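PROTEIN DESIGN WORKSHEET
SECTION A - STRUCTURE
LENGTH: 809
TOKENS:
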């Protein structure tokens, strides 16, 4: 590649190769890569800002072809002309960035997806993506026309569940933030107020460097993480000192900063102490769970930073060995009103193009599919074609040309992940089918239960590795193991990996998880990549295999699932114990508990709570968890209207065959709760006298002053409203008044249908809606009881359904 490149492009290749992740060094196509750089060069030469970007800004925020862990693609090569046409008349970077964001909005809409990133081109084909995938598309489009951008995120919100990722754009003067594929002015995204309440904001840059005017959070192998929290709101310093029981400083102790999110104590920042036992972190103003750990000893403290302006100093003594049985509040900073530029007006045509594209990507209305028999051949085909969205024609063409074994093809599509269906072309699909036929013969030789074949042998996806076909290589390497007893095969694969594949401990942030073929080619891999190779090899010879529930081992089938570890320093799991838990919510027994929403189970490692997802079974009102012996804890939390959360931690020592415990969750004790934990501000009623719903009916006072009623205000263009609406949809047996910011009836109805909300629907402009209730931000959700507010929340509130259900029952 270096021999073929010339001039600036040769310098660019040399620069990128210095920090290129292993996965790209293996799979990159040199010709396509050079053409991708030429496409960038062409646009830079044609745009007014192309020659004015400072070198370091260009190298770290324009030149990189990757944004995160998405699959490798040559986006600039494929979209250079289209995106140039979008910005060729823009006078500066600011106007160009806004235009590109309008283009990105036209391509897609926000919708939660699986945890691994899809490529920007798959996002376009699919027409949907989560916040990081929206950012990836926007950033790649920006970089194609020379606009400096970087990925920014907060690992977990402290005031609600989930997290968020967005984009910073470097204009001629400074960095500004935008939600990818969300048409707002610079620094005016929906999260502009939320981010001022978070614990930490991080940005990612290509390569290792020390910027002059920004805080370096961490420098890793080929990347730098920046602490950008001061760019978004008030911050404070957190200075931690760690000593041992004799008072001596402890070097290299782990310092963890955590918040409550999805029913767990989740880390958002990590540092090591220096040789004087000290570490310092700049954080946002909210209560934090701060802990330290080293060599099986730990300590912790709830640090109250909500109202402080000075550096907070924490002294830890490494002495604890067990998890406490405790409860406590973690409070968050109050909301601040942050105005935004109202002069920016998105192109009206972008809204129309967006809606038209979404309609074109849907083959059959999902509501129609729900009415068809689930098991029918035709329904299965339609559902898979619907899932494939922009790749529908490719799959349909393949279906029409493949008549040998359509039941096999359909069964494969049924188990394939949606992202993989969309990423598959005809040749890749043929390879998957050919491999499945070969594996089926091996599978049948062993006499495994038929139910295991498609999920644990034929499925081309194992976990969240990069999608691709590795079958021929694996079959060739492990062909001699075909037909041997399962344990003999497993032992042979383990020996191969332990002797041939090194452990990669310092993985680059950029680039996804390598699949088995890529790990073989690299001769090295992270712990999870080596386990994926084990699973891939077992499947290649027809033996069902999967990653273990804790991701620290793998399992293969031999009359039952058998655990395997590749870590020679750790004994294979030969004994399991059972934790039998009774869950009690507000004094009532619950058996329908949901992991991550009602509770989580954690294990303490080096001073931090590691979230687990052990197998669960329910019988006679008891929930059973199968784990290896050790100390665990259940974590639950109840979050109030302002985002403050009451946390309960219950330790469980699991050494006997079966351990019984009772887990409490739900509302805090009466003495621990105040009225403002439920209602954000005084409620003075609704003004609905001049309003008609979409059917033309005027509501009466009894519609909201009698019994329980939910009143919900939404902006359908904002992620906070969409995510909150999806949660609220699970609430039933209560009337809804749904008020949507929209210019027409159709958009309001569409929003409710997409998010499965039922009730009386109203629509209007923001100012019209505020005449009904003087809310401060979307979404604004009230639970009224006989006309009085029992609950009132504003902003992103993913626990809204749980809060309402608890208060009603």
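SECTION B - SEQUENCE
RESIDUE ASSIGNMENT:
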């Amino acid at each position: 590649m270096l021999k073929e490149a010339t001039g600036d492009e040769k310098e660019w290749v040399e620069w990128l190769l210095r920090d290129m992740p292993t996965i790209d060094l293996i799979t990159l196509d040199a010709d396509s890569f050079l053409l991708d750089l030429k496409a960038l060069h062409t646009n830079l030469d044609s745009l007014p800002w192309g020659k004015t970007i400072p070198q370091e800004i260009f190298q770290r925020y324009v030149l990189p072809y990757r944004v995160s862990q998405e699959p490798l693609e040559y986006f600039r090569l494929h979209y250079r002309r289209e995106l140039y046409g979008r910005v060729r008349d823009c006078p500066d970077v600011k106007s160009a960035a806004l235009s590109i964001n309008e283009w990105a909005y036209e391509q897609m809409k926000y919708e939660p997806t699986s945890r691994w990133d899809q490529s920007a081109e798959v996002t376009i084909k699919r027409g949907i993506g989560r916040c990081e995938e929206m950012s990836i598309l926007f950033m790649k489009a920006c970089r194609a026309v020379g606009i400096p951008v970087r990925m920014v995120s907060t690992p977990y919100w402290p005031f609600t569940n989930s997290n968020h990722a967005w984009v910073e754009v470097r204009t001629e003067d400074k960095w500004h933030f935008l939600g990818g594929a969300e048409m707002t002015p610079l620094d005016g995204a929906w999260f502009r107020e939320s981010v001022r309440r978070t614990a930490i904001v991080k940005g990612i840059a290509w390569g290792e460097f020390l910027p002059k005017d920004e805080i370096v959070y961490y420098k890793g192998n080929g990347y730098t993480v920046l602490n950008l929290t001061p760019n978004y709101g008030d911050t404070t310093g957190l200075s931690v000192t760690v000593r041992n029981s004799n008072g001596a400083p402890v070097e290299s102790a782990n310092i963890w900063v955590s918040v409550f999110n999805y029913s767990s104590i989740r880390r958002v920042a990590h540092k090591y102490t220096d040789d004087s036992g000290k570490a310092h972190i700049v954080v946002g103003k909210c209560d934090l769970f701060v802990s330290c750990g080293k060599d099986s000893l730990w300590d912790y403290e709830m640090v109250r930073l909500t109202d402080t302006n000075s550096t907070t100093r924490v002294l830890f003594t490494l002495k604890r060995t067990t998890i406490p049985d405790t409860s406590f509040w973690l409070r968050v900073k109050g909301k601040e009103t942050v105005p935004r530029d109202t002069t920016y007006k998105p192109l009206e045509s972008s809204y129309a193009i967006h809606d038209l594209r979404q309609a074109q990507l849907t083959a059959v209305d999902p509501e129609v599919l729900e009415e068809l028999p689930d098991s029918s051949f035709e329904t299965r085909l339609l559902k898979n074609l619907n899932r494939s969205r922009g790749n529908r024609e490719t799959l349909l063409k393949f279906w029409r040309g493949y008549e040998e074994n359509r039941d096999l093809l359909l069964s494969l599509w049924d188990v394939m992940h949606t992202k993989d269906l969309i990423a598959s072309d005809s040749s890749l699909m043929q390879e998957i089918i050919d491999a499945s036929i070969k594996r089926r013969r091996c599978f049948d030789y062993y006499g495994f239960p038929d139910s295991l074949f498609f999920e644990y042998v034929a499925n081309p996806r194992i976990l969240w590795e990069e999608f691709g076909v590795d079958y021929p290589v694996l079959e060739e390497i492990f062909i001699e193991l075909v037909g041997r007893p399962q344990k003999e095969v497993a032992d042979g694969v383990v020996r191969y990996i332990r002797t041939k594949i090194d452990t990669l401990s310092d993985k680059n942030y950029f680039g996804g998880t390598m699949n088995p073929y890529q790990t073989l080619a690299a001769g090295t891999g992270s712990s999870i990549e080596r386990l994926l190779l084990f699973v891939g090899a077992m499947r290649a010879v027809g033996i069902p295999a999967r990653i273990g529930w804790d991701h620290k081992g793998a399992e293969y089938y031999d009359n039952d699932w058998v655990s395997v570890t590749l870590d020679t320093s750790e004994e294979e799991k030969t004994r399991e114990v059972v934790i039998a838990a009774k869950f009690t919510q507000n004094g009532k027994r619950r058996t329908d508990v949901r992991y991550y929403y009602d509770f989580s189970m954690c294990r303490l490692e080096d001073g931090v709570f590691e979230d687990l997802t052990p197998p669960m079974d329910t019988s006679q009102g008891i929930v059973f968890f199968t784990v290896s012996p050790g100390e665990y804890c259940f974590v639950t939390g109840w979050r109030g209207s302002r985002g403050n959360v009451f946390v309960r931690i219950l330790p469980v020592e699991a050494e006997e065959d079966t351990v019984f415990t009772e887990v409490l969750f739900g509302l805090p004790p009466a003495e621990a709760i105040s009225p403002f934990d439920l209602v954000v501000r005084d409620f003075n009623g609704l003004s609905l006298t001049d309003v008609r719903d979409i059917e033309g009916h005027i509501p009466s006072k009894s519609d909201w002053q009698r019994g329980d009623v939910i009143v919900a205000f939404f902006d359908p263009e904002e992620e906070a409203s969409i995510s909150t609406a999806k949660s609220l949809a699970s609430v039933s047996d209560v009337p809804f008044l749904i008020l949507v910011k929209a210019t027409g009836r159709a958009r309001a109805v569409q929003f409710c249908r997409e998010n499965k909300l039922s009730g009386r629907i109203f629509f209007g402009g923001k100012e019209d809606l505020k005449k009904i209730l003087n809310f401060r931000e979307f979404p604004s959700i009230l639970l009224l009881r006989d006309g009085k507010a029992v609950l009132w929340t504003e902003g992103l509130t993913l626990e809204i359904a749980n809060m309402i259900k608890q208060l009603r029952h």
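SECTION C - NOTES
The two ends are 66 Å apart (CA to CA).
The longest helix spans residues 426-446.
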